Sequence to fold (84 residues):
Amino acid sequence: MSNISNPKIAIFYFAFLPQFVLPGATHPTLSMLVIAGLTFIIKDPGGFFAGWLRSHLSVLSWLNRSSGAILIGLGVKLAFERRT
Fold:
């Protein structure tokens, strides 16, 4: 709800979306609305998944530990990598 009333989000989308609309499009506003709708459709399940994770602490704990182990492994790999 806080992002709906945040004008910075709207300004970001109005600045970001036009670069994906073709200059000669017959309905550029419709193209922008379609892109915004697709963005919502793609991002909305992520929000539901994040809410589900917050309610399942054992899964969240496992996810935190495994992502931490991956980051540590990547750090170790980077530390031993040779410079070219």
The CA atoms of residues 62 and 68 lie 10 Å apart.
